[in-house]
Amino acid sequence: xxxxxxxxxxxxxxxxxxxxxxxxxxxxxxxxxxxxxxxxxxxxxxxxxxxxxxxxxxxxxxxxxxxxxxxxxxxxxxxxxxxxxxxxxxxx
Length: 92
Hints:
Number of domains: 1
Strand order of the largest sheet: 1-2
Distance between the termini: 53 Å
Structural class: mainly beta
Order of helices and strands: EE
Shape: elongated
Largest sheet: 2 strands, antiparallel
Radius of gyration: 19 Å
Helix content: under 10%
Strand content: 15-25%
């Protein structure tokens, strides 16, 4: 069930229809990142990543998701969102 903290006045005050603005989850985190390997072939692989926002008061329109994996050095195509590699040391 929902935590009694969600009904206290303040940042998580319910809306007029009494629905909380922060969904109570088992992991107690306002966001969830779910990923799994969709295709795993010898020459390439495809991963699906989904980000879910459980804090209905916050509109996270500018997401930054950092993923680290050795095969990401050879990324050839990205779908549905902008991709920019992080180069921690720049060009050496």
